[in-house]
Design brief:
32% helix, Alkaline Phosphatase, subunit A, globular, 13 helices, alpha/beta, 2 domains, two-stranded antiparallel sheet
Length: 482
Amino acid sequence: MHDSQINPFASLGSAPFSRRRMLQQTSTGFGALALSALAQQSGFAATNQELNPLAPKPTHHPPKAKHVIFLYMDGGVSAMDSFDPKPLLAKEHGQPFKMKVQPTQFDNVGKVLKCPWKFNQYGESGIPISDLFPNIAKHADDLCVVRSMTSNFSEHTNANYFLHTGHGLQGRPSMGSWFTYGLGSESENLPGFVVLMGGLIPPGGLDCFHNGFLPATFQGSIFKNGDAPVADLIRTEKTASAQMRKLNLLRQLDESVLEQAGTHDELESAIQNYELAFRMQTSVPELVDLSQETEATQKKYGLDAPEEFTRTYARQCLTARRLVEEGVRFIELTCPNIAGLDRWDQHAGLREGHQKNALAIDQPVAALIDDLKERSLLDETLIVWAGEFGRTPMAQGDDGRDHNPFGFTIWMAGGGVKGGTIYGATDEYGYYAIENKLQIHDMHATMLHLLGINHTRLTMRFSSRDMRLTDVHGKVVHELLS
């Protein structure tokens, strides 16, 4: 008879005794009882990764920041229309493009297209920012603007995987998963990696937020927009004691399997998830109840804005601040759903599309920066504003821009970066990065460094090699650090 017919758990494989399994099976389980009692002491629990894989972990060096808020600009913002002014485009508007170009996504190379918006210099730093972002512009001295970012991919799906995982193909862990794997989380009642969905799933799907080959505990938890952000979180039992009896039964069943099969990621993660979900039944409704905020705070973020898409992003930004206060390690915000638009991906209708997308995020993002600063949280929170690539300086059709991975802009704020600075440069048209050229791997390495992690040491053994977020690439850009 086949092994799996004798033992239904044989397919799960076997593994060496873990400390927990040894204690459970030694002296009729009294060792596990003692271990459980010790684990209730916060000092012990915080260092026992086997009992709580999301417990805070020691860093490689003193961190500048504790949390990341990643403002994901899905679709690709045009740098020459936002943070990288190019006067030559106005001078040569409507003329044939004179520079040699790489093949674009749709290979529709039109004439030079000027920026429809005016640029002004802001703050003591004098950083030029277009009229698309009048509120973010007020925080120019907090921004570290990187104008020389590049990507290896010009198509959304692969570029999204590259931005999120450091690899252009499906299946690798998201950066949020890597951060929580390396650092754990300071939150006891919420996941360590939270994705606030604005209504659109990006090209590449939810795999952009997947744990890949890391343990399932580190997968991004999707919070949808609205009063019930997490599915199946509402308590169905009449009493808490009834639910606890059900959870205890599930735990006993899962642990009985572990006793026979040994350590197994899916089962270990299931046990952790049941317990976390129970705690989230209380913490999540309180978290998303923004009525607890003052009327002034709600108005500052734009919860009373006339446009629904602005109100949506305002809720996300305010929720992100509350998640930081709760100790969540990595928070990602996605774009809201705007009728008639495909994210920031304006292959036509540049003026209308970028204007509406900017209207959605400008006030809420500025309020987030301001609010974190007022609460003395900006210094320990790294904000990163980035899309998967930029857009071309020549027109696609009459009034659109194609994808451009050869030189685009991101910015960072807080968390130990040098505010009021500009790093790198593109050519006079804004097509190629020509000064201090950076890759996505460099961005990841710098982000990890700011949170106290050496990116070359954050690894997971998989497929017979040590994998990492930055692969075999990446350097920390010290010029961006305060």
